[in-house]
Sequence to fold (528 residues):
Amino acid sequence: MMGIGRASAVIAAGTLVSRLTGLLRAVVLVAAIGSVGKASDAFAVANQLPNSIYQVISAGVLTGVIVPQVVRASAQKDGGHAFLAKLLTLGTIIVGSITLVATIGAPLLIDLYAPGFGPEQSALAVRFAYWCVPQLFFYGMFALLGEILNARRVFGPYAWAPIINNIVSIAGFALFMVLFGQSRAGLDGWSTEMITLLAGAATLGVVAQTVVLLLFWRRIGIPLRLDFQWRGMGLGHMGKLAFWTFLTTLAGQVVGLVQSRVITPASGENASVAASQYTWLVFMVAYSTIVLAIGTPYFTRISEHAAAEKHEDLRETARQAIRILGLLVIVATAAIAVASVPAARIFSSSADEAVLIAPVLLAYLVSLLPLAVLFIVQRTFYAYGDARTPFVYTLIQAALLVVLTLVVAVTTPLEQRAAMVALAQSVASTVQTVIAAVMLRRKFGSFGLGGTMLALGRFVLLAIPAAGAGWGLFLLMGSVDGWMLGGMLQGALGAALIAGVTGIVFVALLALFRVPELTTAIRMLRRR
Fold:
């Protein structure tokens, strides 16, 4: 059994290494096929297809339904092993069937997500998709096994296994460059061997991380067997929860579809699908390392409090989680924002491209704090077995985002479209978080979030001078004409230096004003 401090440290370490190797993976991929170009956007759309469908399965059904159910099943005499065997069997059949249908329908999916592609670019994307879409099965099984391990307080393997994925992909992309050269951003000369190596390496990495998780699964003593006797495992109750969580995530994917259709016409000379994905990857370094790493153990404890009907303990855990998450994501937002141009240089072929991509990253960062708060609020609903309310406020967010994205499509020039779509997403996410917090209070009573929001406001005020220090360093180093934009490596070093200065100043201000959450955060990390 792990406490929150140790569990958070294990997940944070694994997630940080995973995200850093993921950044390296992206850098190697950019070196191979670029970040602004028709081939890079064709691969980006094809490789995103399994992720989009997987999000419906993982975030919608697994996270919202499996964790609370496994927590309850673990109290059974056999430790829930019979339940887990049935669950694993059912999940394998469902994910396998969806993967088969999606692979067969790859051409239709490409047409659906990228209507702005021309015939040659679309044909290349379809050929990539036949190799990439099968990732869906392994993503689904990885998520199913990982969420079960998380619910049983075994957090390490799920956080660390994706590193294998990144290593395998990096090796494959590097071999691609050795055999076929670099910067293959154009549509000319793509042979079957090139497509197989590039897309096959991406898929082989996902297979590898799933195999690693299976090895850990067996080592911790949970039987790995199939059981088709599903009667009595509570499918009716789980089905009701899954129905609403499925619709919740499906609404988000419909939005993603609209966004893709709006952004893809910009492919070629402007920031488009690939650039959006790379900036989202930078955003997810902060979100995953902080929100998922610290929030996941908190979710397990919130689920335990809900199952034991310890409502006041649950409220206090939720408040503490939001304060700690807020403290960390605010400094991350400030640091990445002022380092956005050097950070964008890591995923671009020139300083001009970095300046073009940086606004997309800034637009995404607007939603980092709201999404951190939403993580805890939404999982509190799940812990109480309420999946319908998250669907309601997510549907509102999805409708708003669709409207904003369509407005962007008709009012924004192609060169600004990716950034404005990202900003629309951040605005809609902020509105969603406010609505979710109001609904939480109306359904389960006051959580004392007013005081928590005031604490977050104080953190924001302290982050402003910290960001000023980081921005001042960027200007001192020559701004866009300085050494930080001289190459990918210089961009990485410059971004790290700016972020480090911002973080140091922020922590110093927290200590100066004796902010109590700083002590709590430090204590949590020291519990390791």
User: Anything to note?
Assistant: The chain has a mean pLDDT of 84. Residues 4-526 form one domain. The radius of gyration is 22 Å.
